[in-house]
Amino acid sequence: MPDEKNVSKFASSSQTRDALLKPAECGLRVEKITLARNNCVKVTARTPDIDKIKACTGLAEIGLKISEDIKSLPRLIIHGIPADMCPEDIKRDLMAQNLNGFHNDDVKIIYIYPLKQNRSTTSCVIEVSPAIRRALFNRGRIFLHFLACNFVDHVRILQCFRCLAFGHFARDCKAMPSCGHCSEPHESKDCKRKDQPPICCNCRGLSGAATSDIAHSALDAAKCPILGKKIKDKIVNTNYG
């Protein structure tokens, strides 16, 4: 990426890419180069090659700097948690009953789902280290209080339920609504065409998309290639160890 003193020197990501070192000069094994925001370039290379890129003094001389992409920690969603347990109780029992010997700071309570009517248990999202994730999956269950709880990986993509675009919540949305079923300009809950085949508003916007390519909901990760790719990218950028 351009350093603070040379931001105006590189007007686009393409210019940054063209100024980047040539792989042959450093013996690099570059797998992919992707243009990114703010005139940056993302280089995907084999792990040993990262040090070669960092060691290249020529980059600093032309006003570029290296920032290594840090992967996210894995998240798990635990089901069947007693409704009366607060975050402190969950973390205490999680460590005491399941993770003896692991460090307390390697577990973070992210979110506890609101209790549904006539239910005595709820679900909770936690963020853990790769080692703790492995240990929990080796056990197969998470024990909390007097219950054995099921859990799975939690891979969530931030998608607006109002306009169905990505990167923001519905409460912050300033765009026109888009239906998750028929793709027309109204919210999904107000759709009057639920008896008709779905149309994905995101895939519909792609040029050259055939009718068969858009016959799914924009919220269906199993069928929508756009949402599916974002989930795959999220998994790739998570540190599972």
Structure at a glance:
By secondary structure, the protein is an alpha+beta fold.
Describe the 3D structure.
The protein has 241 residues and is an alpha+beta fold. It has three domains: 13-62, no CATH class; 75-153, Alpha-Beta Plaits; 170-237, no CATH class. It has eight helices and seven strands; from the N terminus they run H-H-E-E-H-H-E-H-E-E-H-E-E-H-H. It has a five-stranded antiparallel sheet. Strand 4 and strand 5 (121-128) form a beta hairpin. The longest helix is centred in the middle third of the chain and has 12 residues, at 87-98. It is flat and about 55 Å long. It starts with 12 loop residues before the first helix and ends in a 5-residue tail after the last helix. The model has no long low-confidence stretch (mean pLDDT 83).
What is the secondary structure topology, with strand pairs?
Elements (H helix, E strand, L loop, with lengths): L12 H7 L3 H4 L3 E6 L5 E5 L1 H8 L2 H5 L13 E8 L4 H12 L8 E6 L8 E8 L1 H10 L2 E3 L2 E7 L47 H4 L20 H12 L5
Antiparallel strand pairs: 1-2, 3-5, 3-7, 4-5, 6-7
